[in-house]
Amino acid sequence: MSWSDLLIVPSILLSNLSLQMMIEKVMSIPGARKPDHIIYDSCCLAKQQAQGNPWFADIGMCVDPWHLENKHKTTHKYCRINCNPKDYPELLTDDGKWFFNTSIAEQINVWLGGFHSICREMLPVKYNFFLDEMIRLRNIIVIDRLQETGQQPCYWTE
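RESULT FIELD:
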């Protein structure tokens, strides 16, 4: 599995149906790759609505592990049976840990949200350049911080 096979959606103010329509439209443009998995907080509701849509038939849809354990009721049987990330072994490493840290993804999405007011009026080229630079600079700071604490960050390649 590669990073491009996974779509982590932050907590957003869209209905699940709007999110499905957005994902389907964006991932259906020429050259786009459909994700193997979609993970987000209320994916169980989206999965129920997507059941009749053949476009979503081969996409794993689950809630992130933290939300499954802490935010969804144990009585929410549909979610527990159909949206448990543990039911997708490809999301786990060989030693049983999660392949992708969805909590960190949520934290980064919150950090990116801090640029919303700055980016609101930007055209696509400036928007992409600005966020690429902000992410590059943040990565430099994070790598320096990790090295200072004796950790050995590295680049992951496929």
